[in-house]
Design a protein that fits this description.
Layout lengths: L3 H22 L2 H49 L4 H6 L4 H63 L1 H15 L4 H12 L6 E3 L13 H6 L6 E2 L6 E3 L2
Parallel strand pairs: 1-3
Antiparallel strand pairs: 2-3
C-alpha cells in the first residue's frame, strides 16, 4: 500500500530533529568535548607506548655502560705496558690492541651521546604529553558539563519529536522504515525526494519502467544515490 504521505510527514518531523542534532554537533561545546574525549580514549595506549620506549632506552643505556666498563678494564691492563714488554711481549701487538680498544671506546662514547639525546627527547615528549593530559582532563569535565547543558535545553523538544516519529512510524512498513533509518545513519538527507522531470535529484535518469512504478504514491529507490523517489 502506498505510504508516501506518511513517509513525507516522517521526514518533515525528522528534519526538525536533525536540525537540533546538527546544531549540537556543530557547537563549540560539542567540539571541545569530542576533542578531549578522543584524547582521553587514546591516552592509555600512548602512555603504554612511551613506557615501552623508556624501557628500551633504559636497556640500551645499561648495555652501553656495561660495554664501556668492559673496554675500560681492558685498557687499564695496558697501564703496565713497559713491564709487559720487558717480559718479552710484542710492543707493536700491544699498541695495536690498545688503539683498537680506544677506537671502540670513542665509538661507544658517540653512541652514548646520541642515546642521551634520545632519552632527553623522550623525557621532553613525556612531560609535554603529561601536561596536555592534565589540560584535556580539565577540558573534558568543563565541556562535558556544557555539552550536557546544551543537550538538556533541547531535551523536551527532542522527546516530543521522537514520540511523533514513533507514532508516524507505526503506519510505515517496518522494512521500509528500517531502510529509511539506515540511510539516515549514513547521512543521506533528504531521503525522500520528488522526481524532477525524468531525473532524480542526484542527476540519474529514471527510465519509463521505473517511472511507471511511481504511480499511485509509490516510492522507488534510486540506484545511484539510494534515495527514495516519488512523483509529485
Amino acid at each position: 500500500m502506498p505510504v508516501l504521505k506518511e513517509l513525507l510527514e516522517y521526514q518533515e518531523v525528522d528534519k526538525q530533529l536533525r536540525k537540533i542534532e546538527q546544531a549540537v554537533s556543530a557547537s563549540e561545546e560539542q567540539k571541545k568535548f569530542a576533542q578531549a574525549n578522543k584524547f582521553m580514549k587514546s591516552a592509555p595506549e600512548r602512555f603504554e607506548t612511551q613506557d615501552k620506549r623508556a624501557a628500551e632506552l633504559g636497556a640500551l643505556r645499561e648495555d652501553l655502560i656495561r660495554r664501556t666498563e668492559d673496554i675500560t678494564k681492558q685498557i687499564a691492563e695496558y697501564s703496565d705496558l713497559d713491564e709487559m714488554v720487558e717480559e718479552g711481549g710484542d710492543v707493536s701487538f700491544y699498541k695495536k690492541n690498545a688503539q683498537a680498544l680506544l677506537d671502540r671506546l670513542r665509538a661507544l662514547k658517540s653512541e652514548m651521546q646520541k642515546l642521551n639525546a634520545d632519552i632527553a627527547a623522550a623525557v621532553e615528549e613525556y612531560e609535554r604529553f603529561k601536561k596536555q593530559g592534565a589540560a584535556m582532563q580539565k577540558q573534558y569535565k568543563e565541556y562535558k558539563a556544557k555539552r550536557d547543558e546544551l543537550v538538556g535545553a533541547h531535551k523536551e523538544e527532542v522527546a516530543a519529536l521522537r514520540a511523533r516519529l514513533a507514532e508516524i512510524g507505526k503506519k510505515i512498513p517496518s522494512d521500509l522504515l528500517a531502510k529509511y533509518q539506515q540511510k539516515r545513519k549514513e547521512n543521506i538527507f533528504p531521503i525522500i525526494v520528488p522526481l524532477s522531470g525524468n531525473m532524480c535529484v542526484c542527476g540519474m535518469d529514471f527510465p519509463l519502467a521505473l517511472q511507471e512504478k511511481l504511480a499511485g504514491g509509490n516510492v522507488v529507490e534510486c540506484e545511484h544515490c539510494r534515495r527514495f523517489v516519488y512523483k509529485a
